[in-house]
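hey can u check if this looks right to u? its 69 residues, i copy pasted from the old doc so theres a chance i mangled smth
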Amino acid sequence: MAKACPVCNKSSLMAGGYSNRTRATQYNPIGKKRRQPNLQWAALPAGGRIKMCTRCLKAGKNLTITVKK
C-alpha cells in the first residue's frame, strides 16, 4: 500500500534541516528527514475501510466516498 492519501493525494515530503543557531555551535547537525502523512483506517458508509490522512478524516470526507464494485 502506498504511503499517500487516496482522497487528497497527500504524500511524503522532505522537511526539517537545521536553524542558523545550530550552525553557529559545534553541533553536528543532521540534514532533512522524510515526513510521512498521518494515515489512519477510516470506515466507509457502504462497508469496508480505507486508509486516509487525518485531515480528510476530520473533514468527514470518508462519508462521501462511494465504493465501486
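The two ends are 20 Å apart (CA to CA).
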